[in-house]
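Hey, quick one: can you model this chain's 3D structure?
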Amino acid sequence: MRPRRLPGLQNIFQELHSDLGLDRRHTDLSDWAQQGVFLLNSVLTVRAREAGSHANQGWETFTDSAIRALSQQREKIVFILWGSYAIAKRALIDSRKHLVLTSPHPSPFSAHKGFFGSKPFSRANDYLSANGYSPIHWA
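Sure thing. Here's the predicted structure for all 139 residues.
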């Protein structure tokens, strides 16, 4: 059985194509992780088909601590915050040490409100290259 593509992920891949001309044929993002891309939701679990069902049950404390620790202990990280909930995490990040990119969420409900055209992939790679790091191979 072929894994289904979630609409938000489809929109991410559509922006990847628009931004860098790259087509992603598979949804396994482990190659991104192997290059240092750390994908993190503020809440790490959810009941099936119940968005936000595990919010305010402790996950935010854990994920906020992870973001804060990365910001404090590392330099030249690209934080890409999608959606208002993620953008609120900007307060945890030292923007003097890191690049913080924000846009609306890639979900079908908000992608057309500024996610499309935000060019997060090329902007991240430009910053990494300008600071002596290898760009991410997004395809």
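One thing worth noting: The radius of gyration is 15 Å.
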